[in-house]
Every structure is written in C-alpha cells, then in structure tokens.
C-alpha cells in the first residue's frame, strides 16, 4: 500500500533495489511473502544480499540456497552480491554498503567448526547507509559487538549520521560507543512499545540514547505496523 501511494497507483511500480541483510526470518520474511503475493504486480530490478555458504549458514540457509525461488517470481530481477565499499546511486540518494558477513569471515576465519557453530549469526548482517545532500541514515541491522567495533576501526568519525536504526530491535548487542560516534538526532527502534520497555532485554544503552542532548526523536514501529514518534523527554520513554 505504501508503494501504491508513492506511485499514485498500482501500475508500473518499480523497486530499484531490495536489500536482505541476513538469513534470519524477521529479515527476509517480508520479501518472501511479498514475492508470493505481489511479484506479478511490480518490477524488482535488483535483490542485494551477501549470503554465507551453506556450511557457514547451517540452520539459516535461506539466502544461500532458498531465496532463488522467490527471486524467480519477479520477471527480470537480478541478484547482486554486495561487499563493503560498494555504492549505488538512485536519483539524489546513494546507498553505501559498510559491512557484510563475509568481511567477518575474512578477518576472523573459523578453524575446525563452521560459522554458525562458533559465531553469533547476527554478525553476518549487512550494515548500510543511505544518504543525500541533506541527511544520512545508517541501518545497523542486527549488528553485534564484534562487528560494531570493526565499524569503528574502519570508519571512525565518518559514521556520523542524522538517523540511526538501532541494532537488533534494541537488544544491547551493539555497544554505546558506536552510537556516540554515529551521534544521530533520530533513532528508530524496529520494535513495539512493550518490547522497547523490557528491561530484561537491557536498558543501559537505550537510556543513554534517550538522555543524549543530541537525540531529538525516538521512533518505534509497533505490532500494528504504525510508526510512533516518541520524544526522549516524554514520560512514555523509560
């Protein structure tokens, strides 16, 4: 419905690129469902991903061996394997790839066991950023502590972005220092209010983000698919 609104109708909808961050179902499920329902109604130009091998993916093989069935539902769609440093230009917007899971395997190769048995599979997430002349929005996906610290080593102060998708639904896998370098004014949590307020999912980073003088807006996406802005000074924010 959002695509129809943006396109002013169902005819000739074109999706320039769809990026799948990793093989957890909450990151590819929408694409698979969309493909089954709407592939005949839209044009998908490119599906971007960075799959691990079947061996390294282990229990999460969607991107390595199953996604092709969904891609084939889109007439003419191409698959592109992305790597850090790639940039793609769409009108006045640029999509840049900051990190992919294969980078982690190259820098910290596993020995006797495969990736999924020795590492947190969230470390295979693609981290990306969209920017124009006016803003930068960084998407941390399910960034873990190890991948987050690698971001600092690679990019440092250049991580600065006006908008930031908080990693892993707000679970504190990503350390506070990374958010300090990003120093965003708007933070987006891919979770509902109930999940946002659960202290057992950790709260130190969440509270520090809310208390930061640079934070102007916190946005949640709840179970009803409604985006809800929360100002950090509101009583609704813990």
What do these coordinates show?
- Helix content is 32%, strand content 23%.
- It is α/β, with parallel strands linked by helices.
- The strands form 2 sheets. An 8-stranded mixed beta sheet has the order 4-5-6-7-8-9-10-11, with no helix packed on it. A 3-stranded parallel beta sheet has the order 1-2-3.
- Helix 2 runs parallel beside helix 4 (62-71).
- 32% of the residues are buried.
- The model has no long low-confidence stretch (mean pLDDT 87).
Question: Outline of this structure?
Answer:
The chain is an alpha/beta fold and 238 residues long. 32% of the residues lie in helices and 23% in strands. The longest helix has 14 residues.
Major sheet attributes: 8 strands, mixed
What count of helical segments does DSSP give?
A: 10
Number of strands: 11
Stretches with pLDDT under 50, minimum 5 residues: none
The amount of beta strand, in percent, is 15-25%
Q: State the end-to-end CA separation.
A: 33 Å
Order of helices and strands: HEHEHHEEEHHEEHEHEHHEE
Structural class, from secondary structure content? alpha/beta
Mean pLDDT: 87
């Amino acid at each position: 419905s959002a695509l129809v609104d943006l396109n002013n109708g169902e005819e000739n909808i074109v999706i320039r690129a769809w990026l799948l961050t990793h093989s957890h179902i909450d990151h590819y499920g929408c694409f698979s469902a969309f493909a089954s329902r709407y592939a005949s109604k839209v044009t998908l130009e490119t599906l971007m991903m960075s799959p691990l091998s079947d061996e390294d993916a282990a229990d999460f093989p969607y991107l390595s061996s199953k996604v092709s069935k969904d891609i084939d539902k889109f007439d003419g769609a191409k698959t592109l394997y992305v790597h850090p440093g790639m940039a793609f230009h769409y009108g006045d917007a640029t999509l840049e790839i900051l990190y992919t899971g294969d980078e982690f395997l190259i820098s910290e190769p596993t020995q006797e066991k495969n990736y999924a048995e020795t590492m947190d599979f969230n470390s295979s997430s693609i981290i990306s950023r969209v920017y124009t002349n006016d803003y930068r929005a960084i998407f941390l996906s399910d960034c873990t502590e190890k991948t987050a610290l690698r971001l600092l080593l690679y990019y440092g102060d250049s991580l600065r972005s006006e908008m930031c998708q908080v990693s892993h639904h707000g679970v504190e896998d990503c350390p506070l220092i990374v958010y300090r370098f990003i120093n965003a004014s708007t933070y987006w949590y891919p979770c509902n209010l109930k999940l946002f307020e659960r202290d057992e999912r950790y709260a130190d980073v969440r509270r520090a983000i809310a208390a930061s003088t640079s934070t102007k807006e916190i946005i949640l996406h709840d179970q009803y698919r409604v985006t809800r802005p929360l100002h950090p000074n509101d009583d609704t924010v813990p």
